[in-house]
Amino acid sequence: MSGADRDTIAALATPPGRGGVGVIRLSGPQALVLAQAFLGFEPRPRYAHYAPFLDETGDVLDEGIALYFPGPHSFTGEDVLELQGHGGPVLMDRILASATTRGARLARPGEFSERAFLNDKLDLAQAEAIADLIESSSEQAARSALQSLQGAFSRVVSGLIEELVQLRVYVEAAIDFPDEDVDFLGDGKVAADLQALLESLDRTVQEAHQGTLLRDGMQVVIAGKPNAGKSSLLNALSGQDTAIVTEIEGTTRDVLREQIQIDGMPLHIIDTAGLRDSADEVERIGIDRAWAEIEKADRVLLLVDSITTPDTDPATLRTGLPRQLPEGLPVTVLRNKVDLSGEAPGFTDHDGTPVIRLSAQSGEGVDTLREHLKDCMGYQTAAEGRYMARRRHLDALERARSMVVQGQTQLSEFGAGELLAEDLRQAQDALGEITGAMTPDELLGEIFSSFCIGK
């Protein structure tokens, strides 16, 4: 730890403003000395003392409950003091001012969690889960963040690292002892272990991606030909007249964004210009922007007019677009205007592609779409142990996966054990960034600076 990390820090641990209770948290080597100064006696460890809080002259600042936790048996791993007083901002400021006068300094954002990480009380993924738990916008997101805080995600990553370590030991032993009668690199074991590791990584990438949707929300693009009802659908989902709706084709010429919540789960809805070949330069710009949004989407809602589009095969509908949708992009086909076409609203699965029949104008089937989007974000499965993940976690997993794939090539095509060993080392380093085992100091500073002051 640096000299700054050996300071005793203090901060308001409850939200600023007025409330029934306000909590000042202190952590560091002088916490017990400060406790004696505030209370006038040495507190018992892990015992709730009801007492007046005294300033430097012996005057009473407030009265409340004091809790002292000697390190390492505390959140930060250091000596910790909590003063729980009345939640008025003036009272809290006076207690903080008295703490700094007595030698403490004000904590940086996230510094308590940072110290917990540096003292091995939790790893980096768990520390980030604290912030995610506080910022949760739904019950499902809170459950998933709690799973990560309790170590669910870290255990998955540790399991992957253990697989990598065992594989590295085997590969590097084969390199170090080339004169053995057995060809360790060519006996099939390494190839099989690489494939098993890749499958584990693929599962984890998929689960982590679902975790990022719970945290950051899903990017959903409404796409389709002109006058299919895209803007009407945006208005129906957002509950307000966000987009202009007319019978004139090409009314929407730019990208419209609306952030909504479905049962507390964040969803970013993007309405786009109708997809067609156009000679109008302004409309062409809007169409190009639409395709750019499609490239970045988590899911595309491919909207068709059920009156003018009798074909119900999703594959045919996709090939009817001016350009091909990106490979592997999840697509839900929406057959709109069923109130006019006579189709029954509802949901079907067409060879793996969800198809929903609805009317954006009348509202029929829109609730079915909402339930479908909730399922896509993990609403139903979050209670079954899904963990929260961040974009940097997903990036690290994908880099690790890329290095394992590259290692497979080094082995199968060139028999290059040294290059395979290096790829495996880099994959392990990438996974280590998730839990903080291999994380640069600059990244640590960026992560913890986004936390609350008292966390």
UniProtKB/TrEMBL annotation:
Domain TrmE-type G: 217-378
Cofactor(s) annotated in UniProt: K(+)
InterPro entries for the chain: G_TrmE, GTP-bd, GTP-bd_TrmE_N, GTPase_MnmE, MnmE_dom2, MnmE_helical, P-loop_NTPase, Small_GTP-bd
GO cellular component terms, semicolon-separated: cytosol
Pfam families per UniProt: MMR_HSR1, MnmE_helical, TrmE_N
One GO-annotated biological process of the protein: tRNA methylation
Binding-site list for K(+): N227, T246, I248, T251
Keyword hit for Metal-binding: yes
Residues involved in Mg(2+) binding: S231, T252
Keywords: Cytoplasm, GTP-binding, Hydrolase, Magnesium, Metal-binding, Nucleotide-binding, Potassium, tRNA processing
Binding site for GTP: 227-232, 246-252, 271-274
Cofactor note: Binds 1 potassium ion per subunit.
Subcellular location: Cytoplasm
Enzyme Commission number: 3.6.-.-
Family: Belongs to the TRAFAC class TrmE-Era-EngA-EngB-Septin-like GTPase superfamily. TrmE GTPase family.
Quaternary structure, from the entry: Homodimer. Heterotetramer of two MnmE and two MnmG subunits.
Function (record text): Exhibits a very high intrinsic GTPase hydrolysis rate. Involved in the addition of a carboxymethylaminomethyl (cmnm) group at the wobble position (U34) of certain tRNAs, forming tRNA-cmnm(5)s(2)U34.
Protein's name according to its UniProt entry: tRNA modification GTPase MnmE
Gene field: mnmE
